[in-house]
Design a protein that fits this description.
The strands form 4 sheets. Strands 1, 2, 16, 17, 18, 23, 24, 25 and 26 form a 9-stranded mixed sheet that branches. This protein has 3 helices and 26 strands. 5% of the residues lie in helices and 30% in strands.
Length: 413
């Protein structure tokens, strides 16, 4: 056994997830796409899929006995059911039958690998190594080799200005490949022919020269336990975190990733920091089996009648929200049907803004939320001005958690 392999056998799970705080504010995200995997792959390449909102993709078995034992805590699990949203408005984004037209880039990731949850395609993410408890960090373009952050748990990714070098937008470039674009250096993460990792030449997020660029494109290998491997087909190697630096594995087949006890350094968790801009979502509470709803005319938010997450009626307008990036690390949720934004009121109840199009005025602060990845495909929404998470109450109202300073650094539940 090599020294590296021996060291890996001694690795332990160093995660320190704080689940002692709020437990009513967890959101589960899934792409609603009723097509088969093959059909989704074809649709992804064609960029013209029309999802079937009435069916949906099978939800992963989140409700384990360990989770069910927390039922007395009234855990709020809000399922974010996302489907394609058009980027060009031609009248309504939804036709009379309730189906949505596909956007050219959002959630077009049905072909990025077997068995992998693909809802983060198009999102802004950070890449975390459980073995080293660090995030991948870019240091520039060609020749500036990629390193890592200081040690920090996956529940606490860098935010705001500190996130410039650690945040990537996941791009589906077709033919089963994805690329990771860093806006700070305006380049893509790539594997060189010297077994080192750096940034590509300067290139915009929508300007990937596929199929000519082979070094910055990756295939996703399902590594189990919420982790993935990033495989570079051109070099026949996996991305690897080696202490505080990034390098590559030895030569390996794409579908031959050894178990964690042998190869832990090649496994990563994708931590979502912002939902994809322009995607339309619905928020479902798994505990109460209801959707978050904005009523006609606005006012305080409520929950719908009981409805399973996969059974969202096509004629329900109130539970549909369009994600908008605010340019400062936050997201806003806009109800296109009501022409209003979700807002955390000064009374700590969830309410709606005045009528406004889907761009957020700079002076509106209570409509801004941080997306907090809490694992298992779930998210929470945190409002930094109030230091509270969004919560669904048992009386059909929408409220907030208790005040938690810097709560976005914790994991609700």
């Amino acid at each position: 056994m090599t020294p590296d392999a021996d060291a890996r056998t001694r690795e332990t799970d160093g995660r320190t997830v704080d689940r002692s705080v709020v437990v009513w504010e967890r959101f589960a995200m899934r792409v609603v796409d009723g097509a088969s995997r093959v059909a989704r792959a074809r649709a992804s390449r064609a960029m013209t899929a029309t999802p079937d909102i009435g069916k949906g993709v099978g939800r992963r078995a989140r409700r384990t006995p360990r989770r069910e034992s927390r039922g007395w805590m009234w855990t709020t699990v809000l399922a974010v059911i996302a489907w394609m949203a058009t980027m060009v408005t031609r009248g309504s984004a939804t036709d009379a039958a309730g189906s949505t037209r596909a956007a050219p880039e959002l959630f077009a990731g049905g072909n990025v690998g077997p068995g992998v949850n693909r809802w983060w395609i198009g999102a802004e993410v950070a890449i975390h190594s459980r073995s080293h408890n660090r995030f991948v960090k870019m240091n520039g373009r060609t020749g500036s080799y990629t390193t890592t952050t200081d040690q920090r748990d996956w529940t606490n990714p860098p935010r705001f200005s500190a996130a410039q070098k650690t945040t990537f937008r996941v791009v589906d470039i077709g033919d089963g490949f994805v690329a990771f674009h860093n806006a700070w250096c305006n380049c893509f993460l790539r594997m060189r022919d010297n077994q080192k990792i750096d940034g590509s030449d300067e290139k915009g997020v929508l300007d990937y020269p596929h199929p000519h660029w082979r070094w910055p494109r990756w295939r996703i290998a399902d590594a189990g336990d919420g982790e993935i491997g990033l495989y570079n087909e051109e070099h026949g190697r996996f991305l690897r975190m080696n202490g505080a630096k990034m390098d590559t594995s030895t030569h390996r087949n794409e579908f031959d990733l050894p178990p964690r006890s042998v190869w832990g350094w090649e496994r990563f968790r994708i931590v979502i920091t912002r939902l994809p801009h322009g995607v339309t979502i619905a928020l479902h509470n798994a505990r109460l089996n209801r959707y978050v709803n904005m009523n006609d005319g606005g006012g305080h938010l409520t929950s719908t009648s009981e409805k399973r997450w996969e059974d969202l009626p096509t004629n329900w307008v109130g539970p549909r929200w369009r994600v908008a990036h605010t340019g400062d690390g936050y997201i806003a949720l806009h109800s296109t049907g009501r022409n209003r934004f979700m807002k955390m009121g000064s009374d700590n109840r969830m309410t709606s803004s005045s009528e406004h199009p889907s761009w957020l005025p700079s002076s509106w602060q209570r409509e801004r939320f941080l997306c907090v990845d809490v694992g298992d495909g779930e998210i929470a929404l945190f409002q930094t001005g109030a230091n509270r998470f969004v919560r669904m109450n048992t009386d059909s109202t929408m409220g907030t958690s208790r005040s938690i300073v810097n709560g976005y650094m914790t994991t609700p539940g």
